[in-house]
Fold:
Amino acid sequence: MAAPKRLPTRQWMGAALAVAALIIVFAPAPSLAAQPTERRFRIEASSYEYAPPAIAVNVGDTVTLELVSTDYVHGLYVDGYGLNLIAEPGHTERLTFVADKPGAFRFRCSVTCGPLHPFMIGKLSVGPNWLLWRAVALAGVAAVAGLVIARR
Ligand SMILES: [Cu+2]
Structure:
């Protein structure tokens, strides 16, 4: 009786890595397990920056932005959501909204506050960044493939 013919281990590894890469690229994003919650951010505006410069929330969160200006009059306009806040120095302006649109949105100053005003920008991220996590997972698969190739 002849021994069953077996595929070489390297071919199995290559096939497994290719299947893993396909799953990473084409698998649907998992539904968000996080329950919508209330989030509050205090954003300090000064010439010509926001602190913090980036905020991240989950889809469905009720978000309150508090804009505080530390020097001149500054604004905060959120692209995609069409929200606008204007804060006088020493005053806090508040705005509450539901983050119902996933994605990355730029926010920028809506009051001409000086020569570098066009560069006064920040970022609102709504929802997890699945593109980034897929890229990280693909890099892991590529690293394993590199190790397999290097070991032969
Ligand atoms: Cu400005």
Observations:
- DSSP finds two helices and nine strands in the chain.
- The chain has a mean pLDDT of 88.
- Strands lie at 38-46, 49-51, 54-57, 62-69, 74-78, 83-87, 92-98, 103-108, 121-126.
